[in-house]
Amino acid sequence: xxxxxxxxxxxxxxxxxxxxxxxxxxxxxxxxxxxxxxxxxxxxxxxxxxxxxxxxxxxxxxxxxxxxxxxxxxxxxxxxxxxxxxxxxxxxxxxxxxxxxxxxxxxxxxxxxxxxxxxxxxxxxxxxxxxxxxxxxxxxxxxxxxxxxxxxxxxxxxxxxxxxxxxxxxxxxxxxxxxxxxxxxxxxxxxxxxxxxxxxxxxxxxxxxxxxxxxxxxxxxxxxxxxxxxxxxxxxxxxxxxxxxxxxxxxxxxxxxxxxxxxxxxxxxxxxxxxxxxxxxxxxxxxxxxxxxxxxxxxxxxxxxxxxxxxxxxxxxxxxxxxxxxxxxxxxxxxxxxxxxxxxxxxxxxxxxxxxxxxxxxxxxxxxxxxxxxxxxxxxxxxxxxxxxxxxxxxxxxxxxxxxxxxxxxxxxxxxxxxxxxxxxxxxxxxxxxxxxxxxxxxxxxxxxxxxxxxxxxxxxxxxxxxxxxxxxxxxxxxxxxxxxxxxxxxxxxxxx
Length: 497
Description:
Elements: H1 13-28, H2 44-50, E1 59-74, E2 79-86, E3 89-96, H3 97-100, H4 102-111, E4 117-126, E5 132-143, H5 159-164, H6 166-172, H7 174-196, E6 200-201, E7 207-208, E8 220-223, E9 228-232, H8 237-245, E10 250-258, E11 270-279, H9 283-300, E12 314-317, H10 318-326, H11 336-345, H12 358-370, E13 378-384, E14 404-412, E15 415-422, H13 427-442, H14 453-459, E16 466-472, H15 473-481
Parallel strand pairs: 3-5, 6-10, 12-13
Antiparallel strand pairs: 1-2, 1-4, 2-3, 4-5, 7-9, 8-9, 10-11, 11-16, 13-14, 14-15, 15-16
Helix pairs in contact: 6-7, 7-9, 10-12, 13-14
């Protein structure tokens, strides 16, 4: 008994020539190697479920029609076994000469290759070794593969090639297929949770005349008909809050954002974000809803990794977390000069504060000394107003202005996964915040928030108290699939030339 093996997915001209010769033989035999359709296909997983508990060696008269890619073949002559894979799983096929006849048996074994797509009709049985199989009664060539699949024993090992040629990665690596199927389930469960809570899914512009809603550099493009520059959105926030002004009350958007920044294990210029906004709510409501949403997703996908999603999440202040890790009380040093001086004087901190604004220095301390240590789900509250141009000031019993806002960021596996506010709805205060952001831009902060007068005018129509949240879907998927980098959870990540 022999077993076919797949080859390296290179440009081997000999392999291509052999496969093209087989393609021509199929055409000469009046076999269409690329037909239009193949109706009535069942997922392999459904076939397996239908016959769960079938005894070893048992025969059935249950007929099934499946389709997928040939990934293995064993045997010749009067009987051969083949393995077929679809999105849902793998199933063994049995081909017998006395069932198919000489011509069709020969074509199946001689003119088809691993990697070819075929449709199969057959009857289910359990082999004596306890493997569910389908005895082929008929088959149809669905697509002749002119290039060989990745080596079936080793998959596709070159990481960069896997990410550039995701189709090969999906063909050759079962773990990759499972990860992206799981990603789809995670997104579906997020939608299910929010829909059940009365949220409306909406769509807002990707091309925007002003970029806003986050501190980031945008991609710029030009609209020829309008004769003006537009920006790929860096966030959906400002448009979604205008919908709250309009009375939609609970809205969310799940879609792509774009930021013209560096590429790292947790950054891709094009990424997927969830943002939701809820009228008559605040940051505490957003925190509770985020925790409940992620716990719902974790239970729905049967998550069993190291992160304890379903336990109560840790909550502490941003300043407290920074002081705990560095010994620096950032709120006691509220200028760039004062904070720079204490950073230089603190042996436990290795940062170059030159040319950094105060909010940038606070973010530097958070990113380097706090964030990497937050492995289990943690929410950091009470951010400085300088870091939060769209959040309401923190309430105090005395009415004192603490310089803090009602905001939290959520972290897991050493990275930020979510950001939430009690949304600022005072148009005069919002105008002052925009003016402060403009001052920071003049000081050299090229990620400062742009002044958006149309948004201020929307607030002047009246926006109810609102809790809003943004969740990084790609990062949540990293955490829930056990992957190490965003490139492993984005089907087609941005790559260098």
